[in-house]
Amino acid sequence: MIRSFSGPFTATFVVMVFFLLMQFLWMYVDDLVGKGVEWYYIAELLFYTTAGVVPLALPISVLLSSLMTFGNLGEYNELAAMKSAGVSLFRIMRPLMALVVALCVLAFLFSNYVLPVANLRGETLLRNIATKKPALNIREGVFYGGIEGYSMKIGEKYGPDDRLIRNIYIYDHSARSGSGKLIVAEEGRMDLSPDERYLSLFLQRGTTYEDLIPSKRTDRQRHPFARSRFEEAEIRFDLSSFQSGDLRENDQKSFNMMNIRQLEESVDSMRHSLKARQIHMESTLANKYRWEVDTMAAAGLVPSHPGVPLLSRLPESMQRRAADNALRLARSQKAYVSQLSEEYDWRQKVIARFRLEWHKKFSLSFAVLVLFFIGAPLGAIIRKGGLGLPVVVSVLIFIVYHTLSYSMEKLGRELVWTPFRAMWTAGLILLPIGIFLTYKSATDSALFSVHSYTAPFRWLAGRFRSKHTA
Description:
Layout: H1 2-32, H2 39-52, H3 54-75, H4 78-84, H5 89-130, E1 150-158, E2 164-172, E3 181-192, E4 198-211, H6 217-220, E5 225-238, H7 260-288, H8 293-298, H9 310-313, H10 316-382, H11 389-413, H12 419-442, H13 450-469
Antiparallel strand pairs: 1-2, 2-3, 3-4, 4-5
């Protein structure tokens, strides 16, 4: 049984990982191509991405392989032969149950220890590659704008290592120029510094054109410019932004890059911070809304008449001013409370994301076990192996599970559901289905027979008729 299950499982798992990896490449191909990134960085990124798609590939692989395994046994009557020999379905499933439980344990260990590291390094590499500037590659007859603040075109490159150049056009629109500036030269030479941090252009027999911005508006309509000629000139470009360094460097760590212990510590720290922030909010609002009527009366600012509204104690000339000031303060406090409410909701959502990730590490293993108890008995019932009907059925079941899981996780992110309810409901919904299918397969009941489902109602109808006749 284990040998029959291992082949389809391995093939299905590899195909699903490859399919999900291709989706990643299609999404981020623009960020990876044309950046001059070394091949080993790309290979390392794909390796970490492969680890990241395992939580999606593992459940459907278990579902499809279990359905194919028992479908093949049922199609070739091997399952019927084992049952006729007195071997029950649970005894047939026992080796695979042990194997799937081991897979569940491995899935938990993988999501707790391997996946956070893979997410951290993979997202770091992807972000650093995406923000890396294209490699310095100045081609003949094409404007190159990779150097910030400059655009240049070189008509011809020749000589040793293409260092000698002709017909050079350089547009300087950097902040230090202050205005448009064009440099045209007949010949020149390109040299890189030994540490490749600077590019030096040694120009010969050129002209510089620079726009002038006069102070008078009437003179601006004439578009004045300054022109100067030179026999030799040198321009240095800073290429430090092209130095990638180590693309693995990272200073950020998100919720999907932590194990269970780190998630618990982060949640505790955020809860303490939220509690301290709430206490500060309460004290601030309490101080802002404190009435000092007795103090004002003692100071002689308002007459001391207990029971009379404060506004009525003020002189008529000050009542309108006091009402306007009170209205202004009330609007200010309303905006302040709205801002505090948004901050509170944001902090709660951040805590919820960490708690959802904590539950996800356990719910993945539970989903693998539930999908096995759906696929194995369903394969024994439909009795079809191969890649036809089992693939269609397993894909439909997995789409239902994935849609439920994603939708309910979104409810957890929006604080509509608790993290526990959001992450476990999809598996708990499918669990009765797995129990029902296992029972039907173990008792050899007809799953798609309407007669078997209407039998209890027909029995009740018969009893009712017999009593009515008597």
